Amino acid sequence: MEILTRLKAGALSVGDAGELLGVGPRQVRRLRERFAREGMGAVVHRNRGKAPINRTEPKTVERIKALVGEGGKYHDLNVCHLREMLAQHEEIIIGRSTLDRLLKHEGLRQARREGPREHRRRRERKEAEGMLVQIDASLHDWLEGRGPKLALHGGIDDATGKVVGLHFEPSETQAGYLRLARAIAVAHGLPIAYYHDRHTILRSPKEPTLEEELAGAEPMSQVQRLFAELGVGSIAARSPQAKGRIERLWGTLQDRLIKELRLADVRTLEEANAFLPGFVLRFNDRFACPPADPDPAWVPLPQDCDLAYYFAARETRQVRADHCLSWQGQLLQLEVGADAPSLAGKRVSVHVIPEGDLFVYDGKRRLTFQHVEQPASGRAHAPARSPAGTPRASDPRAAARKRAWLFGHQASRQTPPESDEKALAYGHSR
C-alpha cells in the first residue's frame, strides 16, 4: 500500500516501484489501475478463499491415507514406487512431488536425512550395450517368511542399466550362474566381458600346479572355463563399490520386488520365477537409459550351438574296455556303432546342465548312453561281523535281501538303512 500510494502521488517511478515489489512494469501498471478503482482491496490476491484448481480431491486423499497408513497394503513403499502402484492398481493418478508433500503433511513419511558420503571417483558407463555385464547373486528373505530364503541371480548391462537376466535359486550356486549365463546368451548374445566378485564359483582360488605352470594353464572354476571357451572376458572386482551398478540394483529390488511379490501373494520358488519376466519388463521400461552408442556389442550364438556342451559343469572319465564309464556311483554304457571307432581307454567328458540332465561327449561329439546296473559277480564282500567280532551264521534270506537292497540302491541312490549288515554292504558298494 505504501509503494502504491507513493506511485499514485508521483513520488516513485514505475520502474522503481516494480523493483521494490519484485514484479515487472506491466504488473505495476495493472496494480496502479486496480488501486485507483478499488482502493486497498487491490492488494488482495484474487485466489484468496478459492480452492486451487489443481487441488487433490479430499476423497482421494483419504483413500491414499488408508492405502499407505499403518496396516495398508502400500505402507512401506517409497514415493516413486507408490506412485506407480497407485496408477497401476488403484487408478489414482497423482504427481510424485504432490504425493510426497501429502504423505509428509499427514505424517506418513519422514524427510530423509543422509550423512556425508565417502567420495569416490565416478566410472563412466560403457558406450554400447553388451560391452560389459555385471553379474551377482543376493541371498535374502525375498518372500518375507511366506516361503524359504532364496538367492536372486541377476545380470545388469553397464551401458543401459537394463536387467538382462534374473532368476531365483535356493542358494547361490554354480548351477545358478550357468543358468544365468545361458539365459543371457540365448536372449541377447555373448557380452564382451562379465564383471563379478571374487566368489570361488566365479574364480578358482587354487594355485596352479607345476604341470599347469609348465603348460601355461591356470586352475579354473566351471564358470571361468565357460567364459574362456566362449571368448568372453572375466573381470573380478576387488570391492563391492567397483561393481556398484549391480549392488545398487539389489538395493532397488529389495525395496520394490519384495513388495510386489507380497502384493501378488507369491509363496514358492516356482511362483517367484514365474513372476519375474513381467517385473523385468516393467523395471527396464522405468529405469533403463539409452546407450551412448546405439550399435550393440552383443555377439549372437550360432544357430547350431549345442547349449548342453557349453553351459554345463563337466568332468572327464576314462572309458573301460567294455565301453562303460563310472559316474558318481552309476554305470553308464556308451552305445557305439559297429562301424564307429573304439572309445576304450579314451577320456570322455560328462556334462551336467543346471536342470540335472546328463550328457557325454567325445570332444564335441555327443555320445548316446544308457544307465545299467553294476554286475554282482566279481565282487568280494567282506563277511559281516557281530559286535563281539565273531562271524554271524549265514542266512540265505538275509543275503537275498541284502543283494536286492544293494542293487536297488545303485539304481535309485536311496539313503542306506542304519543296520550294521546293510551299512557294510553300502560301504562296500561305494
Describe the structure.
The chain is α+β, with helices and mostly antiparallel strands and 430 residues long. The chain has 5 domains: 2-43; 58-105, no CATH class; 132-206 and 218-287, Ribonuclease H-like superfamily/Ribonuclease H (Nucleotidyltransferase, domain 5), CATH 3.30.420; 307-372, no CATH class; 374-430. The chain is 38% helix and 15% strand. The chain has helices spanning 2-9, 14-21, 25-38, 58-68, 79-90, 96-105, 174-187, 210-215, 222-230, 244-263, 269-287, 307-310, 396-412, 420-429; strands at residues 132-140, 150-157, 163-169, 193-196, 233-236, 313-318, 324-327, 330-334, 347-352, 358-362, 365-367, 369-372. The chain has a 5-stranded mixed beta sheet, with helices on both faces. Strands 6-9-10-11 form a 4-stranded antiparallel beta sheet. The chain has a 3-stranded antiparallel beta sheet with strand order 7-8-12, with no helix packed on it. A hairpin with a 5-residue loop joins strand 9 and strand 10. Helix 2 crosses helix 3 (25-38) and helix 13 (396-412) crosses helix 14. The chain is elongated. The model is unreliable at 380-394 and 402-430 (pLDDT under 50).
Note the topology.
Blueprint: H1 2-9, H2 14-21, H3 25-38, H4 58-68, H5 79-90, H6 96-105, E1 132-140, E2 150-157, E3 163-169, H7 174-187, E4 193-196, H8 210-215, H9 222-230, E5 233-236, H10 244-263, H11 269-287, H12 307-310, E6 313-318, E7 324-327, E8 330-334, E9 347-352, E10 358-362, E11 365-367, E12 369-372, H13 396-412, H14 420-429
Parallel strand pairs: 1-4, 4-5
Antiparallel strand pairs: 1-2, 2-3, 6-9, 7-8, 8-12, 9-10, 10-11
